[in-house]
Specification:
Layout: H1 7-36, H2 41-51, H3 63-82, H4 87-91, H5 94-118, H6 123-134, H7 138-147, H8 154-176, H9 181-184, H10 187-190, H11 197-231, H12 236-258, H13 262-273, H14 279-303, H15 308-312, H16 314-333
Helix pairs in contact: 1-2, 2-14, 3-7, 3-12, 3-13, 3-14, 5-6, 5-8, 5-16, 7-8, 8-11, 11-12, 11-13, 12-13
Length: 334
């Protein structure tokens, strides 16, 4: 008997297909309902994720697989957004995006530190809470701008530039947390980081700059040439596959070798590939896949939500929500 004839393999595949069928039904049903009542479809996807997550009774989908597939959706979405922006577009909003993002992140992080102090958290835990509240969800914001057709407006360019600054600051913060863990109250983590702080900061900045320089010096010439060679074959499937493989490959390489996040790496790849005359075709060919996989991002977020927290700690949740919404709003307005 071959491997494919094994009944265990057949029933495992059948269970997987049934699980994804139920997930698809939940997504379509809730997405349709929220659209009918004039609420963004992503709200329905989040609710669907909660319903099929491990914290609610009934059918439970595979959180691990959903999370992995959502990473692909994030990369494709950020790559597609990058295809709409030139470096000049982002550079034109630097006087607003850079100081605005830094001030907003500083103010919201300070609010998170204050809340952590009220709850008697360690300095490290309060700092992580503040940084989490200070960073907007790139995927959510870009999806909202794309749905409303505001990506190519001045407000859209400012928002994207703002997000890029936030991503860069977040990369630096994540690298600095282990070396600072001893000061922040986590000696166990601090023992892992044996390098001086200045060396860690310098290495991180050097890696980010090296990745961006490599993309704009080498990638700016190689990627358009590569797309042109693939397009000459006349195969639509091959062109789509080449674009997707390029986006995911660069995002993975940025994370693996340069310490840059998947999302930021894919975004820079899209900005560089925009120089190609086939950039519009690349955006159109990958749109269906971007939409399908980005849905799984919202589902995976919903699956991580435990509704019991709303009952056990309602005031703490409300305070965090107020800071995330109004704290960021006031800081951004200033």
């Amino acid at each position: 008997m071959s491997y494919l004839d094994d009944p265990r393999v057949f029933f495992a595949a059948e269970r997987t297909l049934l699980a994804w069928q139920r997930t698809a039904v939940a997504l379509i049903g809730l997405g349709f309902v929220v659209e009918r009542i004039k609420v963004p479809a992503m709200v329905g996807y989040l609710i669907a994720g909660i319903l099929i997550g491990p914290a609610t009774p009934g059918f439970v989908a595979d959180v691990h697989i959903a999370s992995q597939l959502s990473e692909i959706g994030i990369m494709l979405l950020m790559f597609g957004v990058g295809l709409h922006f030139s470096p000049q577009d982002l550079w034109s909003v630097k006087k607003i995006a850079i100081p605005g993002a830094l001030i907003q992140m500083g103010a919201t992080t300070a609010a998170g530190l204050w809340v952590g102090w009220l709850w008697n958290w360690s300095l490290g835990g309060a700092l992580i809470l503040g940084l989490s509240l200070a960073c907007a969800s790139t995927v959510v914001l870009l999806k909202a701008l794309e749905t409303r057709g505001q990506l190519d407006t001045m407000n859209g360019r400012i928002a994207v530039g703002w997000l890029v600054v936030q991503d860069l600051v977040t990369v630096l913060a994540l690298v600095l947390l282990p070396p600072l863990a001893g000061v922040l109250g986590d000696a166990a983590v601090a023992s892992v980081a044996d390098k001086p702080l200045w060396m860690t900061v310098g290495k991180t900045l050097l890696e980010v700059c090296a990745f961006i320089a490599l993309m704009f010096i080498v990638g700016k010439r190689v990627l358009p040439w590569f797309l042109w060679q693939v397009a000459k074959t006349g195969s639509r499937e091959l062109f789509t596959l080449a674009v997707i493989a390029t986006a995911i490959g660069i995002a993975f390489g940025a994370s693996k070798f340069f310490g840059v996040s998947f999302a930021l790496g894919a975004f820079v790849a899209g900005v560089v590939m925009r120089e190609s005359e086939y950039s519009h075709r690349a955006a159109e060919e990958t749109l269906p896949l971007r939409d399908a996989f980005s849905v799984l991002f919202f589902v995976s977020i919903g699956m991580m939500v435990n509704p019991n927290i709303l009952i056990e700690h309602p005031f703490q949740v409300m305070l965090v929500v107020l800071i995330a919404i109004f704290g960021n709003l006031v800081a951004a307005l200033v």
